[in-house]
Amino acid sequence: MNTLMTGNEAIARGVYEYGVSVAAAYPGTPSTEILENIVKYPEVYCQWSPNEKVAMEVGIGAAIAGARSIVTMKMVGVNVAADPLFTVAYTGIRAGLVLVSADDPGMHSSQNEQDNRLYAAFAKIPMLEPSNSQEAKDMVGLAMEISETFDTPVMLRITTRIAHSLSLVELNDPIERLVKTYERNPRKYVMLPGNGRARRLVVEERMHKLADYTETVAVNNMELKDQSIGIITSGISYQYVKEALPTASVLKLGLTNPLPSGLIKEFAAKVDKLYVVEELEPYMEKEVRLLGINVIGKELFPPYGELSVRMVSEKISGQPVITVAPVFDAPIRPPVMCPGCPHRGIFYTLKQLKLVVSGDIGCYTLGAMAPLEAMDTTICMGASISAGLGMIKAHPEMAENMVAVIGDSTFLHSGITGLMDVVYNGGNLTTLILDNSITGMTGHQHNPASGKTLMGQAAPQVDFVALCKALGVKRITEVDPFDLARVKEIIKTEVAAPEPSVIIARRPCALIIKNTEKPLQVQDCTGCKMCLKLGCPALSFDEVNKTIQVDQALCTGCGLCINVCKFKALRKAGDA
Amino acid sequence: MSKIINVLLVGVGGQGTILASKILTHVAIAQGYEVKMSEIHGMAQRGGSVVTQVRMGENVYSPVIEAGEADFIVAFEQLEAYRWAHFLKKDGVLIVNTQKIVPLTVLIGAATYPESILVDLKERVECFIGLDGLKLASEAGNAKATNVVLMGVLSKYMDFPADSWQNALVARIPAKMLELNKKAFAYGVAMAK
């Protein structure tokens, strides 16, 4: 019997079956579960890196040294890893190197919607796009084969619907896991301009060879049926097309860089009306047009969001498929900071102090939402500190009225250089490092400060105080984020100080500790609702009794609300 | 078997929709169906709305169910039933655990929890089954088995043999929790009769 697997699980299975020895990543939705599944195969060495650039370089080093390697990341992570990626396209590798880019059309959990197929074209590397989990697994093998045959890194590009959808996968026994010997070859691997110029030509030759290969590779194939309509498609869009238009002819493309121009011309000649169905950018459509072929694409389909069976059906037939019942007016249920979350009190205080908050990416970005609403900007991983410095350089007086807020994992990812810049260029910025000892939002992955590796080994922990000191920060304070009075006092003092400062708010994520506290009790509540400003899911207002009630199943007894209540109505069980 | 069956499981993060979907897909695969399933996680796991989409049939392409196309919706919470009701087919079956989990938007007074949910749903949906799954699960021995109670209810409306559901429970639930969950499942079945 075949096994139901997500695309991410299937890629991990492919890593196991196709002799991959080294895997590295930084977690990011929708890519995170690839490494979390690879770790189940002890034959494969795998690791979380501090960021995607580092992960990419670990993969490059391993592949140059002779081991099949895979590096996985969400699409914005490729921006971070782009520097080494573009140059390893010149050097090539000794053993297979595959980069998995997990794109997020529809922005289910991302800050932008970039289409990373353009990266493959830009970096001049071959790209594969699976349309289900079976193909995701198979394409790990094909990508390794292409990588080694053509001496190039390969991109395996998936989207959220491939990564997180389950479909049936046939499991095979693994091939032998061989690591080649290392061979020194500076002219190939030392990218001085002289060597680089020579390799630049190799890149063009390689793309020419790949242009021939892509015409005949099995993953690019025509499914000829009714020839009045022909559709060129790839990835998840293929599934939508097959369901929406079961009788149409389809040119299904699995190797989408370089695109098979001969096959496209042949297909176009066979059909009356030609469409390209693809999510996001008109990546294939533009190439088809360059061939002088008339095609319908983005004039029907939006360059944003996800496609669907219904959209494909309606746009191509021009007819609405069904009428849908009206949507009931249901209040939204956004993700929230958990009960007992150590971030809550920090944002409550920042709001109280009316500070400008330069924010960052993690669970704590939820501090931007009601009722906390204490965040002014969030751009990308690590931007809080450096963007905060920019704000101060634009308005020096803002230094007395603002903070940068960043989590432990994000600080290690790309906040350190920003803090270095603050010290170097004399910005009086106060940085709050919210150290909850884990990478939270993506589901609790270890990092260089958490004391453990992906494979479960104990690891040294980054000492944030010593690190900040070494960067030249003189004012460093540590605080328990549950001690609200002290948090407020320290933030006020540090924001006022005329030099760079760091406040480290340290308490583990509420979901990773064994909680021994009992839920809180309410007595003599005046109904002032002050505690509701914390936005804790365990607190609600009982409209009948006009008092606060504590959800006994949700409350972790963290006691944050005790600090906020002026009437001592909230108390620990047993306290008088 | 040429028809595709669409089942939507909706609830709140932490309610056990994933285990429920594993039981359901186990049954479908054992009956020879091709199965595809889609679940969006990430930001959603912090107490937000969660939805799992299961599609089964001879040939299933898309893993995604669209509005108006669910044959069955199993809602683990009232408001989530309300939110997703327009996904139900005209003659579809709506199973609702009447438990209320109040979202933060309501807790802080920015919105109100609609009072008319069950009335509105009954009025729109011909095949509506509302039950206190939490109570049934607690009676079976553990409130966390609400998801399995709901699968028991669903089993009565789907066309799969009873023993295939029992096999799925055995395959998907740890041995020491099995008896309790079998009981929870049976309570769901009895409720549906």
UniProtKB/TrEMBL annotation, chain A:
Role according to the record: Catalyzes the ferredoxin-dependent oxidative decarboxylation of arylpyruvates.
Cofactor binding, note field: Binds 2 [4Fe-4S] clusters. In this family the first cluster has a non-standard and varying [4Fe-4S] binding motif CX(2)CX(2)CX(4-5)CP.
Catalytic activities: indole-3-pyruvate + 2 oxidized [2Fe-2S]-[ferredoxin] + CoA = (indol-3-yl)acetyl-CoA + 2 reduced [2Fe-2S]-[ferredoxin] + CO2 + H(+)
Gene transcribed to yield this protein: iorA
Major enzyme class: oxidoreductase
The protein's name in its UniProt record: Indolepyruvate oxidoreductase subunit IorA
InterPro entries: 4Fe4S_Fe-S-bd (IPR017896), HACL1-like (IPR045025), IorA (IPR017721), Pyrv_Fd/Flavodoxin_OxRdtase_N (IPR002880), THDP-binding (IPR029061), TPP_enzyme_TPP-bd (IPR011766), Transketo_C/PFOR_II (IPR009014)
Residues involved in [4Fe-4S] cluster 1 binding: 525, 528, 531, 565
GO molecular function: 4 iron, 4 sulfur cluster binding; indolepyruvate ferredoxin oxidoreductase activity; metal ion binding; thiamine pyrophosphate binding
Assembly and interaction partners: Heterodimer of the IorA and IorB subunits.
PROSITE patterns reported for this sequence: 4FE4S_FER_2
Family annotation (NCBIfam families): IOR_alpha
Annotated binding of [4Fe-4S] cluster 2, by residue: 536, 555, 558, 561
Segments forming domain 4Fe-4S ferredoxin-type: 517-544, 546-575
The keyword 4Fe-4S is annotated on this UniProt entry: yes
Cofactors: [4Fe-4S] cluster
The entry's keywords: 4Fe-4S, Electron transport, Iron, Iron-sulfur, Metal-binding, Oxidoreductase, Pyruvate, Transport
From TrEMBL, chain B:
Segments forming domain Pyruvate/ketoisovalerate oxidoreductase catalytic: 13-189
One annotated GO molecular function: oxidoreductase activity, acting on the aldehyde or oxo group of donors
Key words of the record: Oxidoreductase, Pyruvate
Family matches, as SUPFAM superfamilies: Pyruvate-ferredoxin oxidoreductase, PFOR, domain III
NCBIfam families to which the protein is assigned, alphabetical: PRK06853.1-2, PRK06853.1-5
UniProt-recorded name of the protein: Indolepyruvate oxidoreductase subunit beta
